[in-house]
Amino acid sequence: MSKVKQNLKTKKNKPEVKSKDFFEKLDEFFESNGNVFFWISMVFTLLFSFLLFNFRVSEAGDDSAYIFRAYKFIKEFMFPTFQGPLYPMVMSVFIWVFGLNITMLKSLSLVAIIFHLYFLYRAFKGRVSGFLLIYVMIIISFNAYVLYYSSQTYSEAFYLFLQAFFFFYFFNAFVSRNEEPNIKESWGSYFILGVFLLCLGLTRSIGYGAFIAVFLFFLISKQWKSAFFTTGAFAFEFGLFNFIKKFLFHSGDSQF
């Protein structure tokens, strides 16, 4: 009888092991096999990008306008205006090296989409649900609307790459830390952050919204110094860019 009571007490004191529900098991499976599904999504992205690849310049005209501005920049040193200048400036380097090769210029967008997926996966791995992350990766790899830009000389693919790269850097340099770093030790991190914010804005004007998002993040998390240093770095780099643009190109356009 005493042994029975002792066994009952032992069972009562033993902590209950909570069984995992279906979604927890699903997350655990995709987190442990995330790299496999990541490479599967990359293969599908390459496959369908090649199948949907359009070798012609589209009828819309914007993609040819980017090429034209890139050509004028490298040949006549004319600053690209009207739309985001960074993309045609980057494209101009490849025109300078390889000439006006339309297929090669279109392939740059495919490379940008691939790196967008890579940095998107690296940025959010371990931060969101494993199932959700892999689901998004697979959906992107089959999404004809996204893959359309992998063979166009629009700025969308380049912007997606910059955005994912920014997430990867920001999460690792600022979100993962436990406390605000000393400015003497981490001024380079704020400088790089400012460069990312400026590049996003110079690619597409909506990219300037990233500065507002970062500023609000630091305010909500009560990182007052980080908000101040980020604002200072971004303002300095934005002002420096406009000074160089006006000095070298005699361009005072206020859009970018």
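Second entry:
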Amino acid sequence: AFARLDPPARQSRFEARLLAADATLSHLAGLEALPAALAAELRRRNLPPAIRHGSDPRFCSLDWTGIETSVGPGRIEEPATLSHAAFGIAETGTLVLLSGPENPVTLTFLGETHFVVLRAADILAGLDDLWAALRRAGADPRTVNLVTGPSRSADIGQTLQLGAHGPVALHVFLLAGPG
């Protein structure tokens, strides 16, 4: 049933499932709006105006005036990290993050708050569509991480704890335009 969803329905389903997984979401017209939107989110969360991201040229070329940026793998002491998702999965509200120097996997799991950029055009209907999309894109990453909401665990006393094994918060910037 998910395979038959048109792009607006895929986006709507993705957003609903993402929010149900305790992530938050902002819509951006294009990547150039990211620095201002990220600065606003950092302030809203009482986080310092600093972000760590990989060597992704899309991020490195932006004007980060007012935000201290650092480039490299994620570090546990980072209050905020930024990644780029290759795809989103409408069926579950899941982000698909590919490993590599431009998008180090440690950015996904280390740091207090994880910010992720996703193009609306890259939202797939279901998980079954992912592998074909990766082949079409010529992607051959060492690691594919599927992230649905912030880190959570109920290991101890069956009480849900956010941030147990990774970021306590996940925020997605959904791009309408290229990015």
